[in-house]
Amino acid sequence: MKKQLIMEKAIELFAKQGFEATSVQQITEHCGISKGAFYLSFKSKDELIIEIIDHFMIQFTSEIDYLVRNAKDGENLLYKFYYAIFDSFQKHSDFGKILIKEQSRSFNEDFIVKMRYYDRLMDKSILSMVERLYGDNKVEEIKYDLVFCIKGFMSMYSQLFLFYNVPLDLDLLSTSLVEKTNLLARNSTVPFISKALIQVLEEPALEDLTKEQILLTLNQEIEEMEESVEKESLELLKQQLHEPTFGRAIIKGLLENIRNHPQTKWISYLLDSFFNM
Amino acid sequence: MKKQLIMEKAIELFAKQGFEATSVQQITEHCGISKGAFYLSFKSKDELIIEIIDHFMIQFTSEIDYLVRNAKDGENLLYKFYYAIFDSFQKHSDFGKILIKEQSRSFNEDFIVKMRYYDRLMDKSILSMVERLYGDNKVEEIKYDLVFCIKGFMSMYSQLFLFYNVPLDLDLLSTSLVEKTNLLARNSTVPFISKALIQVLEEPALEDLTKEQILLTLNQEIEEMEESVEKESLELLKQQLHEPTFGRAIIKGLLENIRNHPQTKWISYLLDSFFNM
DNA sequence: TATAATACTGACTAACCGGTCATATGTCAA
DNA sequence: TTGACATATGACCGGTTAGTCAGTATTATA
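The joint structure predicted for all components is written out below.
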């Protein structure tokens, strides 16, 4: 099968020149085959990049997921995690370059959905690792921030592998990042990324929120709140969601009531975009 | 002048679709002008993107540089730094998207040089801030790692501004990151990014290293070393650099002597690529 | 060896690209 | 009103692109 060959050569070229700047002609010349032969293996150029992404990301995410699920000794897990990540980046640096270059590219709607999917998969693995490692502490509040920090470390340090062909000491790097992660996990007290924010981010798209989704969040929030002007406002807004009764002015006022309250500011944002204020 | 208009509309389109996927036609249609009019304001499409990059990056880097230089109270500086960064990202999120999308793109040699230049400028500002903030402590060894971590925080958290149109609490975010940075600065003990590594990275390109540049690093290293097999090997290699006398086998052996020594592993790497081993 | 099935080729198409230029329109001083 | 000058237009050019398809070569089967 020519598929394997085409994918390998294409990865080389995409890494060097980027996806759009590489023509099918170039790829086939690199493979020593004709242009027609390319279209026997792939329906289109887009299908090629999608298959490349899938091939590596499935491997990558499942490797990390396996690591996190089957780890026995907690402390060592984090080290193994970092080591595996950077080892992969080093071994498949060409693919890594593509990933960074074409990140959130618009050449194909499927591509964005795919990348979002794998990103979420990765997030889940990291989150479950964080809960495993620091679960008994008070990590609950800062765990999402921790996930962000870990991903920040990954993205910055992996650039070393991708943009410079320098042999790096993976052991030292992993040890160094383990220490940093532990420091943050055990001493951070100011969370930024709250559960509410995560929920907002995970909404499919802010434009097409369904009434039901908002109601779900709304009810959840109302139950957790004490009696107050804010709670009363929320209940009125819930009523408005079920059946429009108030005018714009009243709605705007109710939203203003809950806008600056830390517990309800996210809901105010959701409702704001739903009512098109 | 149409220049302003063209730049604004182009930024919108580049942010959405990327530079290469956006045609001049599309830009002019968005502006409501003809294709010819575009070329009255810009010599080429490449000149347009270069001007856009310059316009924002000069503003951005100089703002940060001013902040770092003119800060009086140390503690507050870090907060102001983060706040300014994310405030900029929030205000100019379209430009931020372009920056992320086209990072290290190959469409134009000038572009890569430009981006590298601004990146270095940013690095310098951050480094000088780190030295200012934690200078009296033992931050010397981990300062480069700290720069990396700060940049990691920046890149991860700024994605929130770029990919989700969510209003975020800049004050809380800055406070949270200040705490994290302080934790790392005051408690990290395992550096990964050494001065030697930074030197290797700052080499213009590993392919065209001049003999003189290597000799400079070599002499520097030899002076700092105690008498040992490694030092002896370095001196022999220095001799070889001046005048080729040994065969490949001897050179390979000498390189092997210094490859696993932490102090000389970088030099071994430089020499290795110079002698084409 | 003859036939059928499969794998492969490369000239071709239609579309689009960045960039040009003869031409047209608008503007203001004489 | 005239004419000189700046500004704007869009058809056009050479080049490149992804994708097609009628025809050829190779292999498997009988």
